[in-house]
Specification:
elongated, single chain, mainly alpha
């Protein structure tokens, strides 16, 4: 996959989501004025679902792009290297079973277990770095609630700047909170036109921002050390 192909994929993904949101917004023209605030509650659910869904797809597509470059772990930033070593870290942390990765025979003492595993890990570090980078795209987890901190965690996993969307922190968390209140039947009031429009503009900025970020990292090879 080339950087321009990554951007095209992200643009197409964004386009159908924008079209769907526009379709549901247009239905407001058929709804009586006194019911429009009530209807906008459903638009909040749709807006949030597209924000979470698009960010997740974007980051997974970026992972696929990185994998397609056939790089060695030693060539990429630490975040990506760590992301590609999920299996190795799980094996390292699990002292209760034999590992296909760490083969050193462990002593009976639990404390020595840890010391032996650490030695084993350090002896294999350079070998790990020489291996081809391959990241499981399931590492991206929006936790069904894309709070700002969850977005930061997913960016961090891929060696991306975690402060890029700091200005939207309150807006993201407020949207998640409102979506949950509506989805769980706890929010009885409607959503005003201004309130929805403000969220829509902020979400549009966020989604455009994540696309620009990923294209910039791909096009300028910022994932390399």
């Amino acid at each position: 996959m080339k950087a321009d192909e990554l951007r095209e994929a992200l643009e197409l993904e964004l386009a159908w989501r924008q079209e769907e949101l526009a379709f549901f917004k247009n239905q407001l023209n058929e709804i009586a004025e006194e019911n429009k605030d009530k209807y906008r509650k459903s638009l909040v659910l749709i807006l949030y679902s597209h924000m979470e869904g698009y960010i997740k797809i974007c980051l997974q597509t970026y992972v696929q792009y990185i994998n397609s470059q056939k790089l060695n772990r030693k060539d990429v930033n630490t975040g990506l290297m760590v992301a590609s070593m999920h299996k190795e870290f799980v094996a390292y942390e699990n002292l209760d079973r034999k590992s296909e990765i760490f083969r050193r025979k462990l002593p009976d003492d639990a404390h020595l277990h840890r010391l032996y595993r650490r030695v084993d890990f350090m002896e294999k570090v350079e070998d790990f770095k020489e291996q081809e980078l391959n990241i499981d795209d399931q590492i991206i987890d929006t936790e069904s609630n894309l709070w700002y901190i969850v977005l930061q965690k997913n960016l961090y996993k891929l060696g991306l700047p975690v402060d890029l969307f700091d200005e939207f922190q309150n807006d993201i968390d407020a949207l998640v909170n409102r979506r949950n209140s509506i989805a769980h039947g706890n929010f009885r009031s409607g959503v005003t036109e201004k309130e929805f429009t403000d969220w829509e503009i902020k979400v549009s900025d966020i989604l455009s921002g994540i696309m620009r970020l990923l294209y910039d990292y791909a096009n300028n090879k910022r994932y390399l050390i």
